[in-house]
Amino acid sequence: MALTVGKVTINTALTETKAITGFTTASYSTTYQSSVSPTISAGACNRPYFVQSTLASGATVTIDLRSLTEPVFGEALTPARAYTVHLKIITAPGRYMPGASNALVWPFNDASDAINLNAGDSFAYGSATAATIDATNRNVRIINTHGSVTLTYTIVFLLGV
């Protein structure tokens, strides 16, 4: 199995209008796009990992990026590089952050950094330069910060093995 395309693209489209009495409404539209496309090859970005799951209220899941089972074909993966992460919070507010031990701090600056997301929010980060995944830099966590609602999420990584 080989990854053939992998990238993170963010599009922001906007239109502004202003009514002008006695004249045609003025408008301005534009789209901003940013894309990260790591090199797809055997020695670079070559494997996706994704999962959709749930967390009970107040629960935490730790994802060990050195010990994964590929969800479609069931193959064991031991990635050494991370290029992109995309987290979609579907229900309940949640938090994405480095793991409590053997933390993969990427894409943050410190192991205590986090991003809080509400239901319906997404977070995506990508870099053409890989973050190293090893025995001491490997774990990330997702935390359900709601007291009574189950969190449903999807997370996708582009990795190198």
CATH superfamily: Jelly Rolls
CATH topology: Jelly Rolls
For the sheet with most strands, the description reads: 4 strands, antiparallel
Q: How many strands appear in the DSSP assignment?
A: 12
Low-confidence runs of at least 5 consecutive residues: none
Total number of distinct structural domains: 1
Shape: globular
Which structural class should the secondary elements be placed in?
mainly beta
CATH class term: Mainly Beta
Question: Order of SSEs, N→C?
Answer: EEEEEEEEEEEE
Individual helix count: 0
CATH architecture: Sandwich
What is the radius of gyration? 19 Å
Can you tag this structure with a few keywords?
four-stranded antiparallel sheet; single chain; 161 residues; Jelly Rolls; globular
In terms of topology, how is this protein built?
Layout: E1 8-18, E2 26-36, E3 47-55, E4 60-64, E5 68-69, E6 76-77, E7 81-91, E8 94-98, E9 115-117, E10 122-132, E11 139-144, E12 151-160
Antiparallel strand pairs: 1-2, 3-12, 4-11, 5-6, 7-10, 7-12, 8-9, 8-11
